[in-house]
Specification:
Pfam families: TPR_PATROL1. This is MHD1 domain-containing protein. InterPro entries: Munc13_1 (IPR014770), PATROL1_C (IPR057984), unc-13_homologue (IPR008528). There is one protein chain. This protein has 629 residues and is mostly helical. The protein has three domains: 196 residues, no CATH class; 111 residues; 199 residues, Orthogonal Bundle (Tetracycline Repressor, domain 2). Helices cover 67% and strands 2% of the residues. It contains 26 helices and two strands. Strands 1-2 form a two-stranded antiparallel sheet. A hairpin with a 2-residue loop joins strand 1 and strand 2. The longest helix has 47 residues.
Length: 629
């Protein structure tokens, strides 16, 4: 437009500009650098912006976040502009790093972040002469960062901006990073350490957990980042737990413990391995802060005068979270976990609150199981449960509720001790003994079934051989005994025998399962002792019950086994007598006694006996079959 509108005067204007530019170029050099001109310092704002625009030509316009293949050639060509724009190698490295980082912030492409890292490493290797340093220092920029304002040269300003952006992300790395982009986290952490002129910040005085004496600036910075990030993540988890508690009808502390366990897993799997390279105590710091923050919230709840109905669940969730912390500490540092940070580890001492709650719960469960056992045994008809399971339904139900109690006992996530285990075993034994006592009371004496022996089979001197023989009449039994006999048929006796064998087998299974679960309990107790030893700097932990003492507890089951064996023997002695002297008395015994001697032969009754044996073999379990037969 200027050429068209002023066709005649442009030569004169350009001549004036050229003359003025020549005069400025002839001005004395301010820093004595080779090729230095007046425009280097007086127009550095424009020059640096223009060079940034030129640097943007290395980025691919079609593939966002990628460098063009000719990037190296473009950068080499751009060196031709250095004498005109007053760019030095150090300025180039700083401006190129800034351009790469800005592009990374837009795209999130890790390749650009790594290129930024390389450029800053090159920048740190520069050892410029005094004149070059003075020249760069003349480019003054006003900056605001870390709560203060100041002025820096252009290079330091670019590095500070990069550092501030990364620092802001890393102070809440749980929010911005995950296992998927952990490589970006590591590169950004390395970038912060490279670009930080003063690695510490003013936050350290207000830290929840301060650094130890003699810490390096690098470890201090990472310490601060870890604590700040976990505090931010904890705050978000606390807000989330409060919001979810109303929707899920759970206490916030239960949900908070669950949220924090996920954060601990994320910390230990994604971040701690990276942070450990620069600061070996990073994992310990993170776990200690998690433990301390939740402990403060739990302490406030326990100090309250009115504990909610969900106290048992809250204590279980808290204990589970503390076990998670202890397990992670042990896996990271083993027995050598003691350090100055141990002073901040205050065990929750859940057992002080949970022990009486567990005993109360066990007492209530025992009463429920006992009541259920009495009710179900009263209505038992001793019919087989199914074709394949020829035992009493009531016993299956009793063991079902017993197993539910055992599962709830060990899944409560509360600290357990030998007193609780003893109470559990006593409750199980009491219910089974009540069941067995009822079975025993249903039996009648075997002698009740035996007929009175005929006169001819008895000899005594007082017997008159010429007396008239009397017919043998069956004894008239009491109504109560008769009713019992009606319920003691051979099929029902077989079901009872199967049930007694089931009790013995199931008791062995339960004992083995409880012992295995108790091993896990002892492992948890060991972890809590490990945590306590760290805080007290002790070398030993509380002694746990020996295997012998645990085995002694289970001898209480032997009483149940002996009772079951005794009742089994009683029924085994009774079942044959019942079949022969009661069920087959008319067909077998009376016929043998009432008919003539010639017709009284056992072969006649073998088919009948075989029918009974077939019925028994169909009903009885294999273990008892031979004894019953």
């Amino acid at each position: 437009d200027w050429v068209v509108s002023v066709p005649d005067g442009r030569i004169e204007v350009l001549t004036i500009i050229e003359r003025y530019n020549t005069r400025l170029s002839a001005a004395p050099k301010k820093f004595g650098l080779k090729g230095e001109t007046y425009h280097w310092t007086q127009s550095y704002h424009f020059n640096s912006r223009l060079y940034e625009k030129l640097l943007s030509s290395v980025f691919d316009m079609l593939e966002d976040g990628q460098l063009v293949e000719e990037a190296d050639e473009i950068l080499e060509t751009m060196k031709l502009t250095w004498p005109i724009l007053g760019i030095t190698q150090k300025l180039h490295d700083a401006l190129y790093a800034w351009a790469l980082f800005q592009k990374f912030a837009q795209t999130g492409e890790i390749l650009l972040l790594k290129q930024t890292d390389l450029q800053i490493q090159k920048l740190k290797l520069h050892n410029n002469v005094r004149e070059a340093e003075l020249y760069i220092d003349s480019f003054v920029c006003s900056v605001e960062g870390f709560g203060s304002n100041g002025t820096l040269n252009l290079v330091d300003s670019a590095l500070l901006k990069i550092n501030m952006w990364c620092h802001r992300q890393l102070k809440n790395y749980h929010l911005y990073f995950s296992q998927a982009n952990c490589s970006i986290f590591e590169s950004m952490l390395n970038l912060v350490l490279l670009t930080a002129a003063n690695l510490t910040d003013d936050d350290e005085e207000a830290m929840l957990i301060g650094t130890s004496l003699g810490s390096t600036p690098e470890s201090t910075l990472i310490h601060i980042l870890v604590v700040r990030s976990i505090q931010a993540a904890y705050k978000n988890a606390l807000i989330s737990a409060d919001g979810q508690s109303k929707a899920e009808f759970k206490h916030p502390l239960i949900l908070l413990a669950s949220e924090l366990k996920l954060l601990v897993e994320k910390e230990c799997s994604a971040f701690s391995p990276v942070l450990h390279k620069y600061y070996p105590e990073a994992g310990r710091v993170a776990l200690t802060v998690f433990h301390l923050l939740y402990g403060q919230q739990l302490e406030l709840f326990l100090e309250g005068s009115d504990h909610s109905e969900s106290l048992k669940e809250i204590l279980g969730a808290s204990n589970s979270f503390e076990l998670c912390i202890a397990q992670k500490l042990y896996s990271m540092y083993g027995e050598a976990a003691g350090s100055s940070l141990s002073n901040f580890l205050k065990p929750y001492m859940i057992d002080r609150f949970s022990s009486p709650i567990i005993l109360q719960w066990l007492h209530a469960q025992h009463e429920n199981v006992l009541e259920w056992t009495k009710r179900t045994i009263e209505i038992e008809d001793w019919e087989p449960l199914s074709v394949h399971r020829k035992l009493a339904t009531s016993m299956v139900e009793v063991f079902r509720i017993v197993e539910e109690t055992i599962d709830q006992f060990f899944n409560s996530s509360l600290p357990l001790d030998i007193v609780h285990l003893r109470s559990l075993l006593i409750g199980i034994t009491s219910s089974l003994q009540v069941y067995l006592l009822h079975m025993e009371n249903q039996q009648v004496s075997r002698a009740t079934l035996l007929p009175v022996a005929p006169v001819l089979t008895r000899y005594a001197e007082s017997v008159n051989p010429f007396a008239k023989r009397k017919l043998i009449e069956p004894a008239v039994r009491e109504e109560k005994v008769a009713n019992k006999l009606n319920n003691l048929t051979v099929p029902k006796l077989c079901v009872k025998l199967n049930t007694l064998q089931y009790i013995r087998d199931q008791l062995d299974t339960i004992e083995e399962g409880i012992k295995q679960s108790w091993v896990d309990v002892q492992s948890a107790v060991g972890l809590l002792d490990y945590l306590s030893c760290m805080t007290s700097e002790g070398a030993t932990s509380k002694s746990s019950p020996s295997d012998e003492s645990i085995d002694e507890l289970f001898t209480i089951f032997d009483d149940v086994r002996r009772t079951a064996v005794n009742i089994t023997d009683t029924i085994l002695n009774f079942i044959g007598t019942r079949a022969v002297f009661w069920d087959m008395r008319d067909l077998l015994l009376f016929s043998l006694y009432r008919t003539s001697v010639e017709s009284a032969r056992m072969e006649i009754f073998i088919p009948t006996i075989e029918q009974v044996l077939d019925q028994v073999c169909d009903l009885i379990v294999d273990v008892l079959r031979d004894r019953v037969v």
